[in-house]
Design a protein that fits this description.
333 residues, alpha/beta, 2 domains, six-stranded parallel β-sheet, five-stranded parallel β-sheet, 30% helix
């Protein structure tokens, strides 16, 4: 805390009030902001449930609780004190998010919307950009270096609750990105038959989903971690996993951040836009089709074209030897 005669630190306010996957995809840009303004306090506006995840990036000093329904732009009414020195819009291409930041009267706004005259080559929003690249390119237009590959998180301090397990996360924010529960159950059952330890996880409100996968697969209740793990526990679980199987959702980005092998199932959105970096550690399964709605009410047809046999083969190819245990099963086919 500054003393009574000490000038307060200037503040940078970054707006990215979205989900866990969005936060982790924005880490390269956040780190670029951190390096560009080392003497500033970096304040990140995002849902309060993501505070621990934001602080784990090492790029944020303070969290400003902010969220709106349906991935909308929140009102930044929690901001107090002098206006931000710099405001950075990592939420969208405007104009709503730009206007929310402009209402706080910052000295300077970094945004795709309404770039100031001093920007030599104003940034242009490109629908074909990968999400990590999109925000680094915005910063570059304003003279701030950011590396889209700078995604790694520090190793968790807590131990994994299931070291070496294959972690299966069947949920997603929208039904369009949820592979059917019965398909996940088939894969889990066959992983158990192959001698793998399997843990099924789920977020808040996904208790019924995780229970149905476990019951159909014959997975013991103690290997179901549903209801939304605290970030530290989820981070440790993913970091210590032999492989993560999930849809295009937050834990998939966490696997990338911890260099955990992963198999990610893509449907309405192509992996070139939201997928893992190239390499052998991560497999993005996708059967191309017409672009879909990532927030749609039913599973996307492209996602439904992914079969259980190819998913199982990819997971077994990635799983570390630690995931294998002597078979103890009867009746798992």
């Amino acid at each position: 805390m500054p003393g009574p005669d000490t000038e307060p630190r200037p503040r940078v306010l970054v707006l990215r009030a979205l989900g866990l996957g969005d936060l982790l995809a924005g880490v390269p840009a956040l780190r670029g902001v951190r390096r560009a303004f080392p003497r500033h306090e970096i304040v990140l506006a995002l849902p309060p449930s993501l505070r621990d995840a934001a602080m784990a990036t090492g790029a944020v000093d303070t969290v400003l609780p902010a969220q709106a329904p349906g991935r909308g732009v929140p009102a930044l009414t929690g901001w107090h004190g002098p206006p931000p020195d710099i405001a950075v819009d990592l939420h969208g291409n405007g104009p709503e998010s730009h206007a929310a930041l402009a209402a706080l009267r910052p000295r300077r706004i970094i945004s795709y919307a309404d770039p100031p005259p001093g920007v030599v080559q104003p940034p242009v929003w490109r629908a074909e950009d990968h999400e990590r690249t999109r925000w680094c390119r915005l910063l570059t237009a304003f003279g701030i270096d950011a590396d889209p590959a700078d995604v790694a998180l520090p190793p968790p301090s807590a131990p994994s609750p299931a070291p070496g397990a294959v972690v299966v996360h069947p949920g997603a924010e929208a039904p369009a990105r949820r592979w059917p529960a019965r398909h996940y159950a088939v894969v889990v059952r066959r992983l158990l038959a192959a001698g793998c330890r399997v843990v099924v996880t789920g977020g808040p409100g996904e208790e019924e989903l995780t229970a149905s996968v476990a019951e159909e697969a014959g997975l013991e209740a103690e290997n179901v971690l549903s209801g939304g793990l605290p970030f530290a526990e989820l981070s440790a679980l993913v970091a210590g996993a032999s492989c993560l199987l999930s849809g295009d959702t937050g834990p998939a980005h966490l696997a990338v951040a911890h260099e955990t092998p992963s198999v990610t199932l893509f449907g309405p959105v192509a992996p070139r836009l939201w997928g893992p970096p190239p390499g052998t550690r991560h497999t993005a399964l996708w059967h191309p089709g017409p672009p879909g709605d990532p927030h749609g009410p039913v599973p996307d047809p492209s996602l439904l074209r992914i079969g259980t046999v190819e998913v199982l083969a990819c997971v077994l190819a990635h799983a570390r030897p630690a995931a294998r245990r002597p078979a103890e099963r009867t009746g798992h086919g």
